[in-house]
Amino acid sequence: MLATVSTAVVQGVDGHPVTVEVHVSNGLPGYTLVGLPDASCRESRDRVRAAVLTTGLKWPDRRVTINLAPTGLRKQGAALDLPIALGVLAASGQIEAAAVRSYGAVGELGLDGAIRPVAGLVSLADAMEADEIFVPRSGAEQAAVVRPGQVRGAETLGEIVAALIGSEPLPPIVEPLATPSTDARVADLSDVRGQPLARWALEISAAGGHHLLMIGPPGAGKTMLASRLVGLLPDLDAAQALLTTRVHSAAGLAVPPGGLVERPPFRAPHQGSSAVAMLGGGSAAMRPGEISCAHNGVLFLDELGEFSVPILDALRQPLEEGVIRVSRAARAVTLPARFLLVAAMNPCPCGEGAQDGHCRCSDAARARYSRRLSGPLLDRFDLRVEVQPPTASVLLDGAGEESTAAVADRVAEARSRAAARGVRCNADLPAHCLDDVAPLAPAARSLLRKVLEAGELTGRGLRRIRTVARTIADLNGEDDEVSVDTIHAALALRTQPRTVLGVAS
Fold first, then answer.
1. Spatial CA neighbour of 110 closest among 133, 88, 81, 83
2. CATH number of the CATH domain containing 383
3. Around Cβ 176, how many Cβ atoms within 10 Å?
4. Tens digits of per-residue pLDDT, 245-303?
5. Half-sphere exposure for 503 (CA within 13 Å, toward CB)
């Protein structure tokens, strides 16, 4: 007898529909699984058999053949356990084959018949070709975000079987919760004492989507500042929230109780992270890496000079295009990776390079440390500021600083001005429209010409200087042409740590 059950698999952040075809026939007892399953998928035989028996059902003592169609698509993980079990039970006559035909299913089975959550549930639910779907109860709210009114959450295999044979009602339809995101803005900018230049750069970075590099000795407050940047950003819109949720779900990250990631994510990977962990891929599922998990949010690279050179150079393409293309011999995926890069590093390996007479590093060590950051990567940092430790009087007697909420209001106003120009933020402004949205005053144009002729600015740097200047003008409430003072400010923010890095802008 033949039975089919709809399900799906995930590659990257996208789901692909899969049909589980189960055939039970006379002959020597056996179990054959075909259709490019990986090792964990092939192990479903033992999990499914144990789950069926402990649920009180019979395992067919005949030949069982299972095909996972389409056969050219690699199948991975334990998410196909539940549809395989339902297909076997239907093909062996224990439930009606027609009863499972209109349902999709996904979930890992425990040996006791419990249905466990799987990674990528949002993408899996979206891809399944069925009127209604069975998913693990613990992740049903996530699936309901993309399939409202079509998701039924179940805790055990027996619960679904009892509903399909009519002895128990179907599990109730699960709707997405109207619970607000739990990503509260806990770390407030008012906690940061002093640092007026760094705070200003942080505000410009949030308002315009400009990448920020902070250089300073340990304890100056670089990490403290970076961790508060995400609180300045506005909530994600519906499309951004859905895509970010799909990425986090595919990566196996926890999502808020409401099922949607509504606040910009903040990712801070360790310096020892591998290229696969940072960029994605590495398995049949081609999972998203840290740069994709930071999509629509902030990627913070602390101790930037300690990351491997190949990883740092690999950031150049996603910083420009907003995606990362991961290619392997058998497949290639394109993963979203539009993030705001914030990095922090010491002026030298010992960290004391900014203080005269305190550095313990040799000239060779300092040169080797600075060379880890290539010129093309540095060119992509719109803002580069030097962060010095605040004085004792500022730390002990300083007045209260401006709060995150106050700065976030100005950021929101600047971003609304960018939205009126048809872009998400000023960093996305194309070069061909800068003369219209950021016209230069004659003195400002003359200043930029001198800087370009002196070789202190690249063509990419010119565009970025103009977008930063447009952001500064927006924060100041200026709608007319960009003044020479604003260009001076943008140039100063871009060239501030040249004495530390020893590189041109």
1. 81
2. 3.40.50.300
3. 18
4. 999 999 989 888 778 899 999 999 999 999 999 999 877 678 899 999 999 999 999 99
5. 20
